[in-house]
């Protein structure tokens, strides 16, 4: 049974757009609030509110228009989400987002469950790095606001610390993993504890940005099972509602480490739109709007390639073969390294 419900989405980028499209497919209306007046989700939502995320009046208007609230990015102040949650249910819950949006809290939570991450330390000063020399070569990452490698510095030795760094932000220093492979697992968990797990996805990054995702991932049965079980455990411990992604590193010795959790739909899951009967986006909308869980079935193996920057123009003119699906995010400004679209090919 379709219900006459409206989902509020904070953030108007490609993830918001794809959530709106999924919602439309199952008869759910959407209201998007975005601080980008060109936010592409305005092409797909029923109502678009252009506003900063701290403008109380607009947040109230947004909240009044919707039945449930979700978000497409994690960098939203806890207070903002919590205030909305008092009036309309926000999924994933603001408390989950508060943990995951901060790398230190996230790693402490994961390690607290007895799950391995790469060795790491909390860093507030140059001295802290010197004290943790054993983590070099490593990557210094800001605790908050990082994405696509933003806010990250590779440190081969103490000498790589730049004089101008004032350490006004909090950081973590993570040991560099001798990577064999990266994979991710996408899980959607519903309010009643039921869940759908997608098979592990293999991810190839270039300069810290996702370049390609594919299924099936070329991994051992052991890693396959371990990665699914870990994602399930994490979602249960968080009492998670919605779609979540766990990113993993596999090192050359076949160790599996959790890299990070994304409390949202994820770029590596874009191939689920064409390769499964129910995409990560539809599953997210279903879980957040408290609809029934449906069995997820794979249709095909697939490969997804991100299209960055100017490269989008090559695809806009192209003709596509059967089994190729091109997604143009309809972003007005083309910027180098900006995710402009993707193409999924069924294999
Ligand atoms: P973001 O929030 O930008 O996605 P990540 O921590 O996932 O940040 O880093 C982005 C990418 O950089 C990873 O997918 C991986 O390719 C590389 N990377 C990050 N940390 C490490 C590490 N400790 N060892 C090896 N590679 C890493
Ligand atoms: Mg990442």
Secondary structure elements and pairings:
Layout: E1 6-10, H1 14-25, E2 29-34, E3 47-50, H2 56-65, E4 68-71, H3 78-87, H4 94-100, H5 103-112, E5 120-123, H6 126-131, E6 138-142, E7 152-155, E8 171-175, E9 179-189, E10 195-197, E11 201-206, E12 209-215, H7 221-237, E13 242-251, E14 256-262, H8 272-275, H9 280-288, E15 302-308, H10 312-316, E16 324-328, E17 339-346
Parallel strand pairs: 1-2, 1-4, 2-3
Antiparallel strand pairs: 5-8, 6-7, 6-8, 9-10, 9-11, 9-13, 11-12, 12-15, 13-14, 15-17, 16-17
The structure holds adenosine-5'-diphosphate and magnesium ion.
Bound molecules: adenosine-5'-diphosphate, magnesium ion
Could you name the CATH topology of the largest domain? Answer: D-amino Acid Aminotransferase, Chain A, domain 1
The averaged pLDDT comes out at 96
Number of strands: 17
The percentage of residues in β strands lies in: 25-35%
Order of helices and strands: EHEEHEHHHEHEEEEEEEHEEHHEHEE
Distance between the termini: 34 Å
Radius of gyration: 20 Å
Low-confidence parts: none
Structural class computed from helices and strand pairing: alpha+beta
Provide the domain count. 3
Attribute tags:
single chain; about 350 residues; alpha+beta; Rossmann fold; Dna Ligase, domain 1; D-amino Acid Aminotransferase, Chain A, domain 1; 9-stranded antiparallel β-sheet; 4-stranded parallel β-sheet; 17 strands; globular; binds adenosine-5'-diphosphate; binds magnesium ion
